[in-house]
Amino acid sequence: MDFQTIATLAVILLAIILFITEKLSVDLIGLVIICALVITGVISPVEGIKGFSNTATITVAFMFVMSAALLKTGALQFVAYKLSDIFKRNFRLGLVLMMLLIALISAFINNTPVVAVFIPVVIQIAKSTGKSPSQLLIPLSFASIFGGTCTYIGTSTNVLVSGIAQDFGFEGFSMFQLLPFGLVFVVVGTLYMMLIGSRILPKNRKNDEDLEEKFGMREYLTEIELQDNTDSIGKTIMESPLVKDLKIDVLEIKREGTRYNLPQGDFILHSGDILKVRCNLSNVKELKSRAKILDGSSLKMAGDNLKGTGTSLVEMVISANSEFDGKNLQEVDFRRRYRASPLAIRHREEVLHEDLYAIKLKAGDVLLAEVKSHYVKELRKKEMSQNAPFALLSSDNVIDFNKKQFLIVTAVLATVIGLATFEVLDIVISVMAGVVALVLLNILNMREVYKAINWKIVFLLAGVLSFGVALSNTGLDQKIAGGLLNQLGAFGPVIVLSGLYLVTSFLTELMSNNATAALMAPIAIAISTQLGLVPTPFLMAVTFAASASFMTPIGYQTNTMVYTAGSYKFTDFTKVGVMLNLLFWILATILLPMIFPFQSM
């Protein structure tokens, strides 16, 4: 085994470890892959950066813009809230219609913002119907995955595998080539969740409105009165020893009957001021010695007891690929940019209260914060953007539906799909022309275009596309394909396809679906070459399996987003997902060769 082969295997192993551990953000991992493969001489510098100009990368980037335009119209929010009436009349019918609606939408726009829009709606539906959000949020995530497999533009994975096929000299996927088996995903997956999955999902995890109980905040909030001998008198908040030494957050100041909510750092403290503060438990004793803690100051979190006049409590679930992901609140300048003060962070199954500004946030974390009421509207505007850093888990999130804009965006999207479907224009040019049309029609401006593109995914795609080049340059794709054929080849191409699907499905539970697809697609092509068959059925196996992440909350972005919001445990996904994965594996083994027949090259 030569040096370049060893280096390629080492880079692949390193990438898998980084994806699983989430030590680095996915975009940085993409750049690490490129740099490592170029430095070791496995690929040339030109081959390293070729992924940035790949049609798959560019198509995905512009599809993010199309998604952002549709979100801006308020159509998704409008439709989402209409669902609540159906759920109240018939919960099971509402569940089926919700999943089918999500699948339909996800077939044409990016999954992540769809799920972000629906999370707060689903939680409110659960409250109004007396159900637990845990009965709805996993079906929401899974439905977006089902729908994304139906069309070429349904998810970046489909576009990526198609682009890899073209790089190897084969035809890419057409717009609706995946639809026959994608519909199997939608129909079978929805029936499974309605008949079996809904019985397995936890039913007793109520999304309790008592935030004191939910976040365990009783011991962490209190009111103090500044007396004459306090060393903070006459100083600004940020210069106050009380604040600097004890790392407390001042949420409100009451002075002579006037309330100052979330005061700025240059606010000067006076004797007699009553401060509502959040303090780490370890510093409570020290706080008592420096200031007078008022009797009965243990603040209740239910209703408006915590919220001061002019402020609101919000729960913010961190979105996949959010700017918050991998950073702490200090790095994102949370208090200044969002006019908010953090109170607690729910990370997976753990609630964190201390050193909130130093905690590294992850997608799916829920942040409890107190926000100036007039700024909540601004937060909702940020939530509507394509790359929204969070979704607000609020019950009064009403978005105006702009019917005129919706009709324009729908017409442009339909034109883009039509031109690509009938091969009038290549898909990348069709999507690019659609974005230009949206700008010229004043639906979006260029600043919104740049902001809409999820650059993390773009950098990830460019990076993982290097896998294919590296595997080809070193011959590893042929060696791995040969090894798989040695084990399964004697049983025929159907069993080989089945094994390829199973391996891909296992990998995608551990790391990014795009990384899995980029790694396995060249191997699928190598298998087809050695068998003398067209690569289409094998590439389809990789495409569908890479999206079929149901057993863990980390394998797919939307699973991660609903993980904490639904108060799930890791095993909840495993219980529901194992049987679903096995079901799709069996169906893929039987149906893929029928839908995409094996043919000699």
Automatic annotation (TrEMBL):
Residues spanning the membrane: 6-21, 28-46, 52-71, 137-155, 175-196, 406-422, 428-445, 457-476, 488-508, 515-532, 538-556, 576-596
Recorded GO CC terms: plasma membrane
Gene Ontology MF terms: monoatomic cation transmembrane transporter activity
Domain called RCK C-terminal: residue spans: 209-293, 301-385
Its membrane topology: Multi-pass membrane protein
UniProt cross-references to InterPro entries, sorted A to Z: Cit_transptr-like_dom, DASS-Related_Transporters, Na/sul_symport_CS, RCK_C, RCK_C_sf
Key word Lipoprotein present: no
A Pfam family that the UniProt record links to this protein: CitMHS
Gene Ontology process terms (BP): potassium ion transport
Cell compartments where the protein resides: Membrane
Keywords: Membrane, Repeat, Transmembrane, Transmembrane helix, Transport
Main location: membrane
PANTHER family: BASIC AMINO ACID ANTIPORTER YFCC-RELATED
Stated name of the protein: TrkA-C domain-containing protein
Species, as recorded: Marivirga sericea
